[in-house]
Each structure stands twice: as C-alpha cells, then as structure tokens.
Amino acid sequence: MASGGISDVPVNLAVPRTDATLTIRVVKSFEYRTEKSLVLHHINLETTTVGQLKETVRQAIQTQSGWKPYRTTTFDTIKLYTKAHGAKTTNLIINLDHDEWIFDDDAKTLADLGLENESEVSFFNRALYEEFKKHPDTKWES
C-alpha cells in the first residue's frame, strides 16, 4: 500500500478476471481512421469466448444509438491493441505489426489469450485490414 492509502497494485491486476472492463475499438475504415470505442463492463474473461465477445459487440452496434454508420460493415476479426500499462502502437487506428495478436479461434476464452482488466482490442473487417496493410495510406488528411 502506497502512502495516503492508495494501492500500488496496477488496475489490470487489482480487478479480478471475472469482472473486467474492456475497450473495443470498432474500426469501420482504416484509410479514414473511422473508429468508435465501445466500453464493456463486468466481463468474465475466464468464461467469455472470442465468439461471444464478437456477438456482444455486434448486438451493441445493431441496438445502441450512435452506431448506425457502422451497421453496414461486416466485423469479423478481433486483435489485441494494448493491455493496461502496456506500450501502444504509433498507428492511431490499429497496430499493423504483431499479427499473432489476432484472435483467430472463436472458442478460446479471453483469459486464455492473455486479456486483463483494461485491455483494448480492435474489432474490424479482416479483408479491409489485409488490404490496408499492403498500402497503409490514410485519406483523412487530404
């Protein structure tokens, strides 16, 4: 315990894996850097699978206000963006390196893949991602 009664334990370790908060970066367009974040609370990382997380986010996109522009995009891939207190990429929309951070197995639990409280993941269309990796040019500046 640090001085003043404040804990030194990082937030990603202080909260149990059965009650995590995740930030989902829903990426509509890589070229235009169109992204909206969805914060999910009380996620059990030990029982929630990648497939269940995808479905939860798809449901939020279809039912919550403010997501209408995202309803026409097919979202099929989740990739780790960063963990709490971890290094972030220099790309503001997605990390283009570390393809091993793509969660390909919908049956794996989020804990099995190393997610912790306050982790951020990107949810996007895989075909658009692969095309952007070949030519990572942004058009929003023009």
Description:
With 142 residues, this protein is an alpha+beta fold. It has 3 helices and 4 strands; from the N terminus they run αββαββα. A hairpin with a 4-residue loop joins strand 1 and strand 2. The longest helix is centred in the middle third of the chain and has 14 residues, at 50-63. The termini are far apart. The mean pLDDT is 87.
Descriptive terms for the model:
19% helix, 142 residues, alpha+beta
Give the gist of this structure.
With 142 residues, this protein is α+β, with helices and mostly antiparallel strands. It contains 3 helices and 4 strands. The longest helix has 14 residues.
| Proportion of residues in extended strands | 15-25%
Give, in spatial order, the strands making up the sheet with the most strands: 2-1-4-3
Low-confidence segments, ≥5 residues, pLDDT <50? Answer: none
Computed over alpha carbons, the radius of gyration is 16 Å
| Strand segment tally | 4
Shape verdict: globular
Q: Which structural class should the secondary elements be placed in?
A: alpha+beta
Assign a percent range to the helix content: 10-25%
Number of helices: 3
Mean pLDDT: 87
Spell out the helices and strands N to C. Answer: HEEHEEH
Largest sheet: 4 strands, mixed
- How far is the N terminus from the C terminus? 50 Å
